[in-house]
Amino acid sequence: MNPMEKLRTLQKKLYSLQYALAVMDFDAQTAAPSGSDEGRSEAMALLSDMKYQLLTDSALPELLQQAEAMELNVQQKAEVRELKRLYKETCCIPAEEYSQFTKLTAKAIGVWQKAREEDNFDLFAPYLEEIIAMRRKMAGYFDASKPAYDVWLDQYEPGLNMEQCDEFFAQLRQVISPLVAKIQALGAEPAPAYLDAEWPLEAQRELSLELAQLMQIDLDHCAIAESAHPFTTEFYKGDVRITTHYDQRDVTNNLFSIVHEGGHALYELHTADRLQYTCLASGASMGIHESQSRFYENYLARNLAFVEHLWPTLQRLFPVQLQGVEPESFHRAINRCEPGLIRIEADELTYSLHVMVRYEVEKQLMDGSLNVQELPAAWNKAMKDLLGVDVPSDKLGVLQDIHWAGGDFGYFPSYALGTAYAAQLFAKMKEEVPVESLLRKGDFAPINQWLEERIWKYGKEKLPGELLQDAFGEPFSSVYYTDYLKEKFSHLYRLN
Amino acid sequence: MNPMEKLRTLQKKLYSLQYALAVMDFDAQTAAPSGSDEGRSEAMALLSDMKYQLLTDSALPELLQQAEAMELNVQQKAEVRELKRLYKETCCIPAEEYSQFTKLTAKAIGVWQKAREEDNFDLFAPYLEEIIAMRRKMAGYFDASKPAYDVWLDQYEPGLNMEQCDEFFAQLRQVISPLVAKIQALGAEPAPAYLDAEWPLEAQRELSLELAQLMQIDLDHCAIAESAHPFTTEFYKGDVRITTHYDQRDVTNNLFSIVHEGGHALYELHTADRLQYTCLASGASMGIHESQSRFYENYLARNLAFVEHLWPTLQRLFPVQLQGVEPESFHRAINRCEPGLIRIEADELTYSLHVMVRYEVEKQLMDGSLNVQELPAAWNKAMKDLLGVDVPSDKLGVLQDIHWAGGDFGYFPSYALGTAYAAQLFAKMKEEVPVESLLRKGDFAPINQWLEERIWKYGKEKLPGELLQDAFGEPFSSVYYTDYLKEKFSHLYRLN
Fold this sequence. Notes:
The structure is a homodimer of 496-residue chains. The first copy, chain A, contains 20 helices and 3 strands. Chain A is mainly α. Chain A has 2 domains: 3-145, no CATH class; 162-196 and 255-492, Neurolysin, domain 3, CATH 1.10.1370.30. A 3-stranded mixed beta sheet of chain A has the order 1-3-2, sandwiched between helices. In chain A, α8 packs antiparallel against α14 (351-367). The model of chain A has no long low-confidence stretch (mean pLDDT 96). Chains A, B: The active site is at 261 (proton donor/acceptor).
């Protein structure tokens, strides 16, 4: 076998271990009995260790060098690049510290759940302190020349740093804050009374399938399951799973979960066949992935044309609940702007403000200018500054997200960034594809095809920057996102 | 690490790979989208190969020898014994042939499904011929001094051979055939009309949970899922899964599936904690496992005392369907004897005759005295001889079971043997535990405890022969089974 063939064998082994770990995690969240954590953790730790052994094999650097000396095509070069990154990231952390960190975060997630339930930040604080200390130390292993937070931003979104984030969020704030202020000056707009109803689960389950079919998600290769929190996972491009959570009192929850996760799923279902079983066979980055889910959720499903197409289906499934309701009213209801406390319940306009709150405090926690004891107060102040809301409890404030307990610092910005990528994709697509008239007809094929050609099929072959540049025909700019928000919400609230 | 500690590390790695393979198989049968086989097969083949590499490690024989030279306790001795067996079984087959066999049977299962659907034995015949040829060759690798079929009987039930099976089945036939003849002489007894009804799925699902609770199956460690064919799988003793299949037109199908699979599950849920993560941490053999499932299905759930206890629950869940029906009528209906064509639909009395048909033709296929072309005729003749029925098509005859397509020869006898083990357990238990009065009260604790103490907790630590001898206080004898059948069916059909 030549070096490249040897690397392919390695990638297939990594694939199979990753497959197993993904199925075990999916099973844990959708089907496992409540008391089954212990044996699963043992098995997953050992399988992760097998992955670690493969990636830290002392023969790997030479093999990568030999492969680089060969004449490689674009895909092969990308495989070597990605394997080098994986090798470097895995090797640089001492095995003992990595295992210590895994155990710490596994424990911290349980503690965080309890702390949130009991509204007791002090319970979680010592774990958070230890996690931050370890994350700062680990960032040094990766790249001691950079600030720790830059290291983590780059982990989730290759190429991203604080300088870019600062500029990006400043631009967003400049547009979003005045818009929110103008809308709030109009006075509170309550949700329409018909939304507060019983939405039978059987009909909601049927709606899930109707939405998947409408989006042309191939259900022979994508199954829908139920879990406490919706997510998407891919075992390989022929087996993607999305989950949703049915709430009898809220039909929009499931509707937007399916569309959002469906966007993630379409991406994974359409990576090129040639990437299969390599380390390139999934989405390019967290931000790019989020751009796909947000594209379907915000730019398509919150569009009046989409609601109008879906209306006969909704009327058929919920004839009593939606009796006499017009699609315009529903469209308005799902686009209602109202600053609130919880990120995952935020409307399209205020969503990025929630991300900014996290960005600001994460940055300071990482550079040591904010300590954990001061965090709740800093959180509450940022919420007041950015969203104008008073946080009544840590449960509804700093304790609401799982990310930090899992050690994820620098992840949040990719949510806002992905939403902004999607705005630019939406603008560019509309230059070539009559999106709204297609939505009104329920014809997703040209929309999906456009994204497949520009984004999906490349998997991780292109780095995010290159991928976006090629898709846009120009560099990324947040102006598309801010212009979109300005236009949409000015129109909805007749601000001009 | 000393040799025994090294073997523990090996066992834990085997555990984690086995865990992953079991979850992937369970997921495939319960949750996976229809088109997801390809990538799963690739991943499973690679994980199986990792297991193969661990078990054929050239350092293993010496490690096992070193461990044997240590002072070992009973469990450690059993671990070494089991690892030696695994090493021997894995090493003796050339890797290439093993992989060829895996691919052949994977393909053959698809062909068998098609052949059964189309009632076309010729389609399946060439695959079956190749499987038999490979199985005969592989038996030679295991132990060239024994007839091939003895090798395979011993695989599923350590210690079993044709001599014992011949004697066992002769004893069964001597009792069962005259009983069946006497019952048939009484004339056909149709199933009661009320069974032919709509049995709502929601109520059937609730019945599953009620049955599991009644059997004291800990649902924190055992989940119930749905699949085309019911089965039980264990990831470890803290995570067991049973599946059932709901048939809107048949309530007994699900009822007995849950009780049968529940018996398998109780066994796995109660292996001793000290066996966890070792190769001893699951049931002792196919026959012993089947003895537990049959114990609950036949000896307990087909007992009038059980039906009487369950009656208020059944009446509550199916008030219309069971209106005016007495438990005695239902008990009679679920014990109706009627020779038929399909093994998995057979009643308690004729079940072992179906096994005998398979035993007779398997034996001859393995020693070469019957060739595949002659198989359907031999099958039909055996069905006529043993059950008195005419087989109208291969679909309802020789093509009904999946086992041979999967390469499983010598598996069927363990079904009958397990049922006979259970009869002896039932007789011995009744000497110490008032089984029927406990069933009438719905108190399974003393029953479960008796089995846990004698069977469940040992896992694979004892070999089947020793395990049964210790549990019975005497050697296994088929007389308990034949006496039970004689008494039960003489009483039901008033034959005396």
